[in-house]
Each structure stands twice: as C-alpha cells, then as structure tokens.
Amino acid sequence: MKTRSFTLIEVVVALAILSISIAGLLQLLTAAQNRIIKVDDHWMRTHMLIQAAEYYMLMKQEDPPAITDTFFPYDDYRVDVIWEEIEGLPEEYTGLTNQKQLRAMVLSLVRQQDGHEVDKIIIDRLDYENASSAE
C-alpha cells in the first residue's frame, strides 16, 4: 500500500500563500488601527470645540469671561474667540429697524505646546451688544 504525501514544492507554495494572506491581513489591521486613532483625535477636537461653543453661546457679550477649567478641562489646549462681520448677506436683510446684527463667532482650538491652530468652527449668531435701541 502506497501513501500519498505532499511534495516539497506543494508545501512551499502553501506556505507562500499563507504568508501573503497573513501579511495582507496585518496590513489591513494596521490601516484600520490608524483610521481609528485619526477618527478618535478628530472626535476629541470636535468635542472640545463644541464644549467651548456651548459656553460662549450662552454669553451675550463679545468679550466674555475666560472659560473655566471645570467647563473646559483640557490643559493642552485653549480656545481663542474672535468676532467677524458676516459678508455676503442680501441687502434686504441688513439695516432693518430694530434688527440685531448677525455676526460670526470664530472659535479656534489652539494647542498650548506650539500655539498651532488645530481646528476651528464658525458660528453665526446675533450681536446683542451692538443691537438696535428698541427691542
């Protein structure tokens, strides 16, 4: 009775196919891990900006008090706020009697370590300080 066994070539080909499959799987896992890290970082930056936006949207003045550590507990970052005029509004929406002016509040998330702006959001909101006299 003769037993059939694998030849050396068959074993080498099988190992090569297995190695290529494992290398492809590891590459796929590494790419997925990098995407997860990138998405987590983006989510965290967005979360910090939204927290700051909630704080500053509650303040009616253009120069609100600094955001507190209990509301924004991130030592590595700070949020800078500036106000800009909104451009491109249609003429019929500007200069109306008793109308509050629409302005853009720009919130920039800045890394404390190097002063680099890592993200920003722009929120259009009413300007309560420079509102028309009668309400």
Summarize the structure in short:
The protein has 135 residues and is an alpha+beta fold. It has one helix at residues 8-58, and strands at 77-85, 101-111, 117-127.
How would you spell out the order of helices and strands? HEEE
Instruction: Give a short account of the largest sheet.
Output: 3 strands, antiparallel
Q: Give Rg in angstroms.
A: 29 Å
Q: Unreliable runs, pLDDT <50, ≥5 residues?
A: none
Number of DSSP helical runs: 1
Helix content: 25-40%
> How are the strands ordered across the major sheet?
1-2-3
Structural class, by secondary structure, is: alpha+beta
> What distance separates the N and C termini?
104 Å
Number of strands: 3
Molecular structure report:
- This protein is an alpha+beta fold.
- It has one helix and three strands.
- A three-stranded antiparallel sheet has the order 1-2-3, with helices on one face.
- It is elongated and about 105 Å long.
Features of the shown structure:
alpha+beta; single chain; 135 residues; 1 helix; 3 strands; three-stranded antiparallel sheet
What layout of secondary structure does this protein have?
Layout: H1 8-58, E1 77-85, E2 101-111, E3 117-127
Antiparallel strand pairs: 1-2, 2-3
